Amino acid sequence: MTVLRKNLIDGEWLGEAGSRNINPSNTDDVVGEYASAGPEEAKQAIAAAKAAFPAWSRSGPLARHAVLKKTSDEIMARKDEIGRSLAREEGKTLAEGVGETIRAAQIFDFFAGETLRLTGELVPSVRPGVGVEMTRDGVGIVGIITPWNFPIAIPAWKIAPALAYGNTIVFKPAELVPESAWTIVDILHRAGLPKGVLNLVMGKGSVVGQAMLDSPDVNAISFTGSVGTGKRVAEASVEHMRKFQLEMGGKNPLVVLDDADLAVAVDCTVNGAYFSTGQRCTASSRLIVTEGIHDRFVEAVKERLDKLVIGDALDAKTQIGPVVDQTQLKQDEDYIAIGRQEGAELAFGGERLERETPGFYLRPALFTGATNAMRISREEIFGPVANVIRVKDYDEALTVANDTPFGLTSGICTTSLKHATHFKRNSEAGMVMVNLPTAGVDFHVPFGGRKGSSYGPREQGRYAMEFYTTVKTAYTFAG
Ligand code: NAD
Question: What CATH code would you report for 4-248+453-477?
Answer without folding.
Answer: 3.40.605.10
